[in-house]
Amino acid sequence: MTSPYISRFAPSPSGPLHLGSLLAAVAGWLDARAAGGQWLLRIEDIDPPREPAGAKDWILEALVAHGLNWNGEPMLQSSRGDAYRAALDQLTAAGMVFRCTCTRQDLRAHDGVYPGTCRDRGMAALPEGTPHALRVRVPEGDAARIRFEDRLRGDRVFDLAAEQGDFVIRRKDGLWAYQLAVVVDDAEQGITDVVRGVDLLDSTPRQIHLQRTLGLPTPRYLHLPILVDQRGDKLSKQAGAMGLDLTTPRANLARTLAWLDLPSDPRATVQTQLERALAHYRPQNLPPGPIHLC
Ligand code: GLU
Ligand code: ZN
């Protein structure tokens, strides 16, 4: 790639890194280094009740142990409230935001597509203390079709209105939603390339919609294979995936590289393994996955 390249690894510090997150970190690091680009770090700590104390430090320590050096200082989403507020104000001024009082129960029958119940209420005042989320409107008709080119998976088209509908940008509990925070911060960090798990593929059209509405650039996207358990479910901290054993970084890295169809050797240092992998890395040769653990 000849154009400038800035990418990021953006873990949520809901626990220590596990093998699934290591896979995303290794592939992301390789993609950035192969492009001669920067690999930034962003800690997505916007959900304090789900973040054990010390999780951020475990993550940094795990990256260092596996030779995954990042550029610059990590960005912390917990310090970015003013920027999220400014983006919300901009969307509100454009008439794109409304207060939603729907409960999970109300939405259950709609298969994850918001039925538009509160759409016409806009920002009209609610009785004092009424719990509500803020949602952003998605376009209707042809304008709802969002198309992007995934660097591994090719041309993708989504119909935002039919598949997802108006979505949450600030949660009922007052916390900022991932979709808003990620878009504001990708722009702030100058991200040209988003490299992340394919479990987030269907978030991409929502993020592109927000970028367009906020007048922000749309980066390139590469959605990586993810690691799944025997049942085919994504390995996640919520699902109880074990934290990485930091006493065996060479073996952890070798497993990860093998899953990515790259040369691996658990006897070599992490630096040597990464160098060899880098020499062979081609984004278009990544396996699409899913990758079954054991
Ligand atoms: N924080 C998200 C996660 O841990 C990733 C966000 C992103 O890469 O866009 O799953
Ligand atoms: Zn609603």
What does this structure look like?
The chain is an alpha/beta fold and 294 residues long. The chain has helices spanning 19-34, 55-65, 81-93, 104-107, 160-163, 178-188, 204-214, 249-259, 270-280; strands at residues 6-9, 38-43, 75-76, 97-100, 133-136, 145-150, 154-159, 167-170, 193-197, 220-224, 227-228, 291-292. A 3-stranded parallel beta sheet has the order 1-2-3. The chain has a 3-stranded antiparallel beta sheet with strand order 4-5-8. It has a two-stranded antiparallel sheet with strand order 6-7. Helix 1 (19-34) crosses helix 8, helix 1 crosses helix 9 (270-280) and helix 8 packs parallel to helix 9. The longest helix has 16 residues, at 19-34. The chain starts with 5 loop residues before the first strand and ends with a strand. The mean pLDDT is 95. The structure holds glutamic acid (GLU) and zinc ion.
Classify the beta-strand content into a percent band. 15-25%
* Rg from Cα: 20 Å
**Cross-sheet strand order for the largest sheet:** 1-2-3
Helix content: 25-40%
Form type: globular
Provide the succession of SSEs: EHEHEHEHEEEHEHEHEEHHE
